[in-house]
């Protein structure tokens, strides 16, 4: 059982709660394991990447994966000699064969631009993705159509109909699109016509824009940096936030009679959208309030309901506590609790909330400089499980039917009628999202995690099988906190085999206790939850 921390302030006590295990509950949409992100297609050809993904799919249950770089030159997809075009899908086949063999489907992001089709030489990332519009939009459409036809021939229409096709990534940001809003809309129009021309049932969407904003910076054809309001106020919650390009995109598609099977965007809870975006803008790199995701998705749901595309799915194809791959908060316990809280609080508002990303084998700024550098991943480069990994592993264990739920706790039943209960402590006195702790400075997240009082929970679960047993797994400062162990080694940039083994053991073997209902089928629980701790209880 989790013990009280005598060094903390007096705990805030939660009421005793009685739950009937036989009670009929409400179906829950487990949208948290619909999709997971990865860096780029080229990374997916590596054996260690595939090994890590296979483990992640097994433990966390993800059904789709999205990544950048499918059409970049390192994948060898497109070349041109004179007026003759050549397609080569061999590397894509290798990658997609591997994914489907792991029982995870592609959430296809079409991007970035093959050099031989590009209108310019503007690039992004360490791996130099070309982010300019096509010099010939018809050539772009031909490439997509030929690739989709190839997939249908290789995998069958019934399979490909289960995929999603997203057009580009964050074209609202100059970093990812050296073009205008109208040029992106033309790209979408070309793409959706090419894909739907093959089969109307194939699912196409966009605009895959960056995080929400509280001002008019994206109202024009390109971003107007002078319109930023976030650098003018202290309280970000005082502003009204909205999705970028969403309304204009829906109006354009309605006017042009274009299909929109899903709307996608990236609701990072920050006042900036990409690494290094703050430079020269006056942006402070701040995090919004903890309920920002829920508010953003409510805005998005209402916007769709007011459009002709009210039946379109909502896919948040990137999300995390921040949009930077050098944020030490990503390695923390607080990240895990934030993931669980946001996913449970926003259930029913979206069809997927895709965490960005599953592994620190991720090279937008180049290879990670050390084992724990604030990378996006649920796993670090060596495959060591961070606390965030367990957040998704725990969420995946939840059943399909909720019989009781409140702030910080949920009790479910799976299809076999077995109980799955999840308890987490995001302190009520903490109003903001997990803050950015810019690598290599870990002090921000360390100070943040000192906040909060312990919380006590007393619960009586009835109508269980007599003497039924339960396993309790605990994630807290002393269990699964791999960064703490790494720091005890002196924060080595290069691990010995012994250190790597010790860290993997720490990340894999959480503290466990066994519980048992009494002979009348009653289980009494008295939990003392430290701030930033998580407990999963599973009926055996």
Protein model, in words:
Strands 3-4-7-10-11-12-13-14 form an eight-stranded parallel beta sheet, covered by helices on one side. The chain is an alpha/beta fold. A hairpin with a 2-residue loop joins strand 5 (78-81) and strand 6. Helix 3 (137-155) packs parallel to helix 5 and helix 8 (333-345) runs parallel beside helix 9. The two termini are 17 Å apart. Residues 1-13 have low confidence and may be disordered. It folds into two domains: 12-25 and 406-539, Immunoglobulin-like (Sandwich), CATH 2.60.40; 26-405, Glycosidases (TIM Barrel, Alpha-Beta Barrel), CATH 3.20.20.80. The radius of gyration is 24 Å and the shape is globular. It has twelve helices and 22 strands.
Span between N and C termini?
17 Å
What is the CATH superfamily of the largest domain?
Glycosidases
Total tally of structural domains: 2
CATH class of the largest domain: Alpha Beta
SS element count, helices: 12
Query: Radius of gyration, Cα only, in angstroms?
Result: 24 Å
The dominant shape is: globular
Structural class: alpha/beta
Ranges with pLDDT <50 over ≥5 residues? 1-13
Question: What's the β-strand tally?
Answer: 22
Average pLDDT reading: 95
Could you give the order of strands across the largest sheet? Answer: 3-4-7-10-11-12-13-14
Helix proportion range: 25-40%
The fold-level CATH name of the largest domain is TIM Barrel
Strand content: 15-25%
Largest sheet: 8 strands, parallel
Based on the coordinates given, report the CATH architecture of the largest domain: Alpha-Beta Barrel
């Amino acid at each position: 059982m989790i013990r009280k921390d005598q060094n903390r302030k007096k705990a805030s006590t939660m009421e005793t709660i009685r739950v009937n295990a036989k009670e009929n509950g409400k179906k829950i949409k487990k949208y948290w394991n619909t999709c997971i992100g990865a860096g780029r297609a080229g990374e997916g050809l590596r054996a260690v990447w595939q090994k890590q993904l296979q483990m992640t799919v097994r433990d966390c249950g993800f059904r789709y994966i999205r990544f950048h770089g499918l059409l970049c030159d390192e994948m060898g997809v497109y070349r041109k000699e004179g007026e003759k075009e050549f397609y080569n899908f061999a590397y894509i086949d290798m990658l997609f064969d591997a994914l489907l063999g792991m029982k995870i489907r592609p959430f296809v992001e079409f991007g970035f631009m093959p050099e031989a089709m590009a209108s310019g030489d503007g690039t992004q990332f360490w791996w130099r993705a070309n982010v300019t519009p096509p010099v010939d939009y018809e050539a772009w459409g031909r490439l997509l159509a030929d690739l989709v036809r190839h997939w249908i021939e290789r995998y069958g229409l019934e399979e490909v109909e289960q995929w999603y096709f997203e057009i580009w990534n964050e074209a609202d940001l100059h970093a990812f699109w050296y073009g205008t809003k109208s040029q992106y809309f033309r790209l979408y129009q070309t793409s959706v016509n090419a894909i739907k021309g093959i089969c109307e049932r194939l699912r196409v969407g966009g605009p895959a824009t960056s995080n929400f904003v509280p001002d008019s910076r994206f109202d024009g054809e390109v971003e107007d940096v002078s319109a930023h309001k976030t650098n003018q106020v202290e309280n970000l919650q005082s502003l009204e936030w909205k999705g970028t390009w969403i309304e204009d995109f829906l109006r354009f598609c309605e006017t042009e009679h274009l299909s929109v099977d899903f709307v996608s965007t990236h609701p990072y809870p920050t006042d900036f959208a990409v690494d290094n975006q703050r430079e020269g803008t006056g942006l402070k790199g701040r995090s919004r309030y903890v309920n920002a995701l829920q508010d953003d998705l409510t805005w998005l749901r209402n916007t769709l309901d007011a459009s002709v595309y009210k039946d379109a799915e909502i896919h948040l194809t990137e999300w995390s506590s921040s949009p930077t791959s050098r944020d030490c908060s990503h390695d923390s316990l607080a990240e895990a609790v934030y993931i669980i809280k946001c996913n449970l609080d926003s259930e029913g508002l979206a069809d997927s909330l895709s965490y960005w990303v599953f592994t620190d084998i991720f090279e937008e700024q180049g290879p990670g400089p050390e084992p724990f550098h604030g990378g996006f991943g649920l796993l670090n480069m060596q495959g060591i499980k961070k606390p965030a990994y367990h957040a998704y592993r725990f969420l995946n264990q939840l059943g399909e039917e909720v019989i009781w739920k409140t702030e910080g706790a949920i009790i479910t039943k799976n299809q076999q009628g077995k109980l799955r209960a999840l308890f987490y402590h995001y302190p009520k006195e903490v109003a903001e999202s997990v803050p950015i702790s810019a690598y290599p400075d870990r002090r921000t997240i360390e100070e943040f995690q000192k906040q909060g009082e312990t919380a006590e929970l007393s619960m009586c679960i009835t109508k269980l099988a007599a003497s039924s047993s339960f396993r309790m797994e605990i994630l807290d400062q002393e269990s699964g906190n791999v960064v703490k162990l790494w720091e005890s080694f002196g924060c080595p940039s290069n691990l010995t085999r012994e250190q790597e083994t010790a860290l993997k053991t720490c990340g894999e073997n959480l503290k466990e206790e066994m519980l048992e209902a009494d002979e009348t089928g009653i289980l009494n629980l008295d939990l003392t939850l430290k701030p930033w701790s998580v407990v999963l209880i599973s009926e055996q």
